[in-house]
Amino acid sequence: MSRISASGDNVASSVDHLNARILIGEDPAEAGRLAAEVILETVKANPAAVIGLATGSSPLPLYAALAVSDADFSRVSGFALDEYLGLPDGHPQSYAEVVRTEVTDPLGLDPVLVHTPEPHGQDHAADAEAYDAAIRAAGGIDVQILGIGSNGHIGFNEPGSAFDSRTRVVPLAERTRQDNARFFASPEEVPEQCVTQGIGTIFEARQLLLIAHGEHKAEAVRLALEGPVGQEFPASVIQRHPNVTVVLDRAAAARLGEQAKP
């Protein structure tokens, strides 16, 4: 892995919603297989495709489905959405390590073609600018995989993030740190800052693939697809993108079409 620095059809349904195609599986495993088809179609059309890689629990069924496919990912490039600041190299919860163990190794990607933001440099702003430049030099992202936070964050773009924001260092909202504490030995170990692709960077991808599972994500999904578009709920920006696929399990899709509950 390189760092970029300045130095089953019968159980699934599909609907069109605004600019988004929504695929719904019965459970996370089925949703993962549906999401995998999006990536497999892209790689079949372009074996040297550039994929934006998300971490967290939402894309895990997708990566598991890709790992058992017979596709050749050896020419695929990957760019991670984000990386924590303050964790040592090799920490199991650093996103460089998560991407290696969950994506690069299982799928057989070339580590030289898989990139994460540089968290250890002396000039974070320059390193972030270099990361955006590396994405452009690779030809841009063909499919950007996204999860969604309960507060609407995508990547680590917390509420209030500008829609034209670029890769940069950001503080993590306390709610996000609490949500991510399950991955660490204690809540105190969750970093307070990270480097994240900006919403503007994300929006430049040719296709967005947003994945969500579980009842606890249902309201966030509803707001992202049906709520007002605004910086207070960053994921709402997907309503403005011309090519979006949303893959949900039944629980995460449960509130689509509802009026907001009091």
List keywords for this structure.
262 residues, Rossmann fold, nine-stranded mixed beta sheet, three-stranded antiparallel beta sheet, 28% helix, globular, disordered N terminus
The low-confidence parts are 3-16
Number of domains: 1
Q: Which fold name fills CATH's third level, the topology?
A: Rossmann fold
Strand order of the largest sheet: 1-7-5-4-8-11-12-3-2
Q: What is the 3D form?
A: globular
CATH hierarchy, class: Alpha Beta
Give the overall pLDDT as a whole number: 91
Tally of helical runs: 7
Backbone CA Rg: 17 Å
Q: Which band does the percent of strand residues land in?
A: 15-25%
Helix content, binned percent = 25-40%
Q: Under the CATH scheme, which architecture would be assigned?
A: 3-Layer(aba) Sandwich
* Class per helix and strand makeup: alpha/beta
Biggest pleated sheet:
9 strands, mixed
What is the helix/strand order? EEEHEHEEHEHEEHEHEHE
